[in-house]
Amino acid sequence: MQPSRPGRSSYFSRVQRFDGFTLIELMVVLALIVVLATLGLVQYKNSVTYTKESVLRKDLAMMRDAIDQYYADKGQYPADLEALVGEHYIRAVPDDPLTKSASTWQTVPAEPDPNNPTAEPGIYDLHSGATGNALDGSKYSDW
Asked: Looking at residues 123-142, what average pLDDT do you find?
């Protein structure tokens, strides 16, 4: 029988084997993944809203420009937005990107013409029909 070496058996009994992750480590990793996913989702939603707001600003500028061109050519404001389409100032009335409808545009009537009081005043300006506030805090209906 061989004599056992001193300290050898006690060394192997003290060594622990790590076969996997502890529950705490898994929970920490899972919590980090949830936080990063939440931040990504918020950033995604803000970028979608920012894009819709950019399209709204572009559409408003385009239609206001068409109204101004109509007035410069005809000497009166259009009776409705479809008059801009009928006279080929725009191809179609765009959908409001926030309400997803072309019928929600809020029109502002022009002042009556003192030289021709019987004439329809027409559309002077328009705004979005969307409710709520933009990312900068302003109301969509004020744009």
From this structure: 93
